Amino acid sequence: MVQVIRRPTIADVAEAAGVSKTAVSFAFNRPDRLATDTAVRIRAVAETLGYRPHPVARMLTQGRSRSIGILTPQALSVVFENPYFGTFTAGVAAAAEAAGYALHFISPLHGSLAGAVNRATVDGVVAVGLSAHHPEVEQIRRAGLPMVLVDSTALPSQPAIEVDDEGGARAAAEHLIGLGHRRFVVLAIEPPDRSDVDDPDGVPARRLRGYLAALAAAGIDLPHEAILTSLSTIPGGAASFAETWDAGQRPTAVLAMSDAIAVGAMRAARERGLAVPADLSVVGFDDVELAYFADPALTTIHQPIARKGEQAVELLLAILDGRDGPDDHEILATRLVVRASTGPVPDAVRRTTEGGASGRS
Amino acid sequence: MVQVIRRPTIADVAEAAGVSKTAVSFAFNRPDRLATDTAVRIRAVAETLGYRPHPVARMLTQGRSRSIGILTPQALSVVFENPYFGTFTAGVAAAAEAAGYALHFISPLHGSLAGAVNRATVDGVVAVGLSAHHPEVEQIRRAGLPMVLVDSTALPSQPAIEVDDEGGARAAAEHLIGLGHRRFVVLAIEPPDRSDVDDPDGVPARRLRGYLAALAAAGIDLPHEAILTSLSTIPGGAASFAETWDAGQRPTAVLAMSDAIAVGAMRAARERGLAVPADLSVVGFDDVELAYFADPALTTIHQPIARKGEQAVELLLAILDGRDGPDDHEILATRLVVRASTGPVPDAVRRTTEGGASGRS
DNA sequence: AGCGTCCGGTAAACCGGTTTGCTAAACCGA
DNA sequence: TCGGTTTAGCAAACCGGTTTACCGGACGCT
After folding, report:
1. For residues A347 and B294, what is the distance between their CA atoms, to the nearest angstrom?
2. HSE toward the beta carbon, residue B227, CA cutoff 13 A
3. Cys-Cys crosslink for B251: which of A147, B50, B185, B271, Cβ 3.0 to 4.6 Å?
């Protein structure tokens, strides 16, 4: 005969202590409503029974879960490989913990982000990298779940934390132009979802606009084939650079949309006998720890990653508490950090291309 | 007059469709129990009302949350700063997502891990870096929550995924000893909780045992003051090395318990005019991406970080499904990866200390 | 003594779903 | 025509808590 272990319920405790369920509930949540010794006795009984209030039942009555969701358009297993996300999450966690909220990660389960959201027991959501006109976003809004967008242009009615990606990208390109470079290759981030490839609000599109604006201002044309796309990983960046180089393109400077891609490009370049920055300049984006410790240290665009996470949660909590409306948009600044991966265009190249404008060899 | 937006319940849908709550529930969960056209009609009504079943209510009746918890003894904001954790989490997420489970992070809220656990709506827990005899662990077990331990020696009755930390540490020390080093400093990881400082099952203690075993076998004594402790971060490692160096100790080799600490030590060493590995050899632990891209590339002990996360979840799910008992222990291997941060002991030092045994100057 | 308050505690409704009988009508074969 | 089997749908119980409304007794005051 198997001893069935059933978790004790509030009714079990009530019976064992000879009181009502109400009394047990009060003993835990409103001890002032009970005589001190009664409350103590009830808690003692509960302790010996190993009782702990069922969190789900508690949630149901209170209507709050005291946890917030992080919505990612990609599987967590890929997203967490990116150190950028770790830093962002640290910021999110700092603000959430300070307010006593736990973190719940929501990623497309079995391909359906909407389905995952419906399963999730959260009071609100921070969505990262999901554009405002995304169908999922619309569905979540309809479900009445408060949400703050990150890394996506804000809609008027949709709260969001914005970063000046375009300005940062412009600064990156201007830096290289100032060093005399005129043959570029852009290593872009591949959007997680095919449908987002041309999303004008997405981070890739915003950064591309910044690059192109600076290049155009300098009279430089960037041919279509000088824009390569890959996942924001070191291998992804390496593959992109390898593809363009092996196809015969001979850029002197690489505009990478993430530090991971930049480091991958440097690796692929080194494998092809190129010295950075003597033969090739590389500038990344994000300024993660990797950028500082890469060899050579990576020139990149700094953005306040952790701060972004904190702000998103703070805004979300403000909305949850009714302290703030959905129309609060803040734009965080970016800035160029010059390290060792960028330098003047090689003399040999300068002589052959003086006045040239193409990124092709 | 404010329009109060109340989320529609199953009763609202039932009324609007002119059926019972049961019918609505069946329309979603057991369409075969209903006439096809009725089910279709009900779902249409639900759609126009914007109804989605309340996940908490659903959990309550089904008794499952379809999410698993990650228990960390430190605040998430510090834990996520560590790239090691990102990789581990990626492994956890891969296995969890494959099985349709979401991830819920549980960290000590307001200092109480037990309190946080009680709030959490999870089917099971993966606890990282929590020793089996920790009071919190005992409490969770009593609460009947299935749990798998990681980075902690297993108790017979407590399922766990183990890594051969001691063997790895021994290999690290033997590598340096083989290069002729005899003056060491150990940069240890500071346990999150003061009460865990002397936990013999913890990762720091296991790695220290490995170091000491190798040193003892070579007849080398490690003085007490040659063991420094810090958080497992780059600044932490830098501070530790600075402290020991500035106190006058002159080691030729550093045994760092994590790659982050190792990189921090290299940084502090460089600031003090030391060349790695010419003047100082450094070996890390974990083999995170940082180790590969550090300058110089870090010699370290590789452990299968992501795989560890996957295995932990797989074991947990097996227990949840009743497919497996709590007595399944697997020990994952570690191995030395030699890169550029270690080299032979400097000649000058060798001459002066031939036969010496101390880590002091 | 009589009246109003406070104290300690309880019964029952409620949160929003799922699941278990049960019933009435439709269907079916002999 | 009639008993037996499906079929379609419903009422009510249930999950495990919280919260509201109420009640009896002790206390304090005039």
Report:
1. 30
2. 15
3. B185
Q: Do B97 and A109 touch (CB under 8 A)?
A: yes
Query: What's the pLDDT score for residue A38?
Result: 94
What's the CA–C1' distance between B26 and D5, in Å?
23
| Option in B55, B80, B293 nearest A294 (CB) | B293
Residue B93 main-chain phi, psi, to 5 deg: -65, -40
Cα–Cα distances (Å) from B350 to A146, A326, B249, B299, in that order, read 66, 68, 16, 21
What is the pLDDT of chain A when averaged over all its residues?
A: 89
- What sections of B272-343 are H helices per DSSP? 289-293, 305-320
Q: Please say whether the dihedral angle defined by the alpha carbons of residues B149, B154, B157 and B161, taken in this order, is positive or negative.
A: positive
User: How far apart, in whole angstroms, are the C-alpha atoms of residue A318 and residue B338?
Assistant: 51
DSSP, res B198: T
Q: Residue A45 has which token pair? A: 């009984």
pLDDT tens for each residue of B86-138: 999 999 999 999 999 999 999 887 778 888 888 899 999 999 988 777 777 88
Bases in strand C with any atom closer than 7 Å to a protein CB? 7-21
The SS3 assignment for B228 reads strand
Q: What is the β-pairing status of strands B329-332 and B160-163?
A: parallel
CA A211 to CA A285: how far, in whole Å?
A: 12
Whether residue B102 and residue A86 make contact (CB cut-off 8 A), yes or no, is no
Count the neighbouring beta carbons within 10 Å of the beta carbon of residue B139. Answer: 16
Asked if B104 lies within 8 A of A109 by C-beta distance, the reply is no
Q: Cβ atoms within 10 A of the Cβ of B216, count?
A: 12
Q: Summarize the confidence of residues A290-301 as an average pLDDT.
A: 89
Q: Cβ of B111 under 8 Å from any chain A Cβ?
A: no
Quick one: pLDDT at residue A1?
Answer: 36
Cα distance between the two ends of chain A: 81
Q: What is the largest CA-CA distance in chain A?
A: 95
Contact in structure between B334 and B308 (CB atoms under 8 Å): no
Min Cα separation A81/chain B (Å): 6
Q: Percent of chain B beyond pLDDT 70?
A: 91
Contact B40/A at CB under 8 A? no
CA count, 13 A, side-chain hemisphere, B238: 10
- Residue in A298, A303, A326, A336 with CA at minimum distance from that of residue A151: A303
Q: What is the pTM of this model?
A: 0.87
Q: Which of A192, A45, A42, A41 is nearest to A111 (CA)?
A: A192
With a cut of 90, say whether residue B185 has pLDDT above it: yes
CA distance B71 to A136: 30
Coil, helix or strand at residue B64: coil
Name the 3-class secondary structure at A210: helix
- Token representation of residue A343: 């330098």
